[in-house]
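In the laboratory, one determines a bound structure by crystallizing the protein with its ligand and collecting diffraction data. In a computational setting the workflow is compressed into a single prediction: the sequence and the ligand go in, and a structural description comes out. We illustrate the idea with NAP.
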Amino acid sequence: MKKLEEKRIFITGRNGQLGKALVARYPDATAKGRDEFDITDINQVKAISWSDYDVIINAAAYVNADHSETKEGREMSWSANAVGPRNLAEVAIANNINLIHVSSEYVFDGTLQNHEEGEIFTPLSVYGQTKAAGDIAVSLVPKHYTLRTSWVIGEGHNFVKTMNNLANLRVDPKVVNDQFGRLTFASEIVRAIEHLLENDVESGTYNISNDGPIKSWAEIAAEVFELAGHDKSRVKFITTDEYKKDKQPFAPRPTYSDLNLLKIQKTGFESHDYEPLLKDYIDSLERS
Ligand SMILES: NC(=O)c1ccc[n+]([C@@H]2O[C@H](COP(=O)([O-])OP(=O)(O)OC[C@H]3O[C@@H](n4cnc5c(N)ncnc54)[C@H](OP(=O)(O)O)[C@@H]3O)[C@@H](O)[C@H]2O)c1
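The predicted complex, in structure-token form:
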């Protein structure tokens, strides 16, 4: 078996939060953004010389859950999150490639407080439905890892960055206090992928988020304000019902996003707590 450093890696979605973190970790990999390689286009997918690769890491996705509830967004979401993974699964099967894919806790309705990998799909939103369809396609690949994650924070648009900007702009946000989870820094997903590949862990689905306390979005927003040196009481706690009154389109969200990390931890993976990483992240935003 090849060592990790000998494996030839192809990364999709290179300009996204996860894509950027992967490119930083694997600078010698072939990495393509949507402008160069659109996973929804089967002709483009089939045009690659796949015998040159051992691993595909699919960091491409359409992640705008609210816009996925519109006609245009529904098409984008189904194409990128279901058809795209199907296309990659086809070439992975044909060329004996390990397909690494990234899923979301939105495949669940969030009524269970803690999600294990084997929970039955019960998506509430179009985005969640399309991610579930992508997971099913990827599960047909003999060697695959589907990393199910939530609340991703990296280089790009995300909740923490938005809250930090609002704090600095003297805007007092209203944030929901009845959806619960943990942050996942893109670096944690990259570490998990490295762990699975290096140890040739059994094929399948693995939850991955950072460890640390389960909090609501509002509590995390307050933490961001405090870490950035602002008065955390400026964050107004509201319910999802209040929030969605002014929000169209609006995708229903799982109440509980907490992912159970035991399966990957049992393979020897050591989860990192998100709170020190959040502090470092806020510091880096303040410096930039
Ligand atoms: N963000 C979250 O909170 C979150 C939560 C749970 C799970 N996830 C999952 O985590 C993974 C990584 O998410 P992320 O936060 O890194 O998302 P992201 O920052 O939005 O990155 C996704 C990238 O995919 C690209 N893309 C979209 N459609 C494509 C296509 N048809 N072909 C090729 N590339 C395409 C996008 O390009 P353009 O920018 O040009 O459109 C973008 O650069 C995704 O699978 C997502 O579903 C994310």
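The pocket of NAP is lined by residues 12-13, 15-19, 34, 38-40, 59-63, 80, 84, 102, 104, 131, 149-152, 156 (CB under 6 Å). Keep in mind that any predicted model is a hypothesis to be tested, not a measurement.
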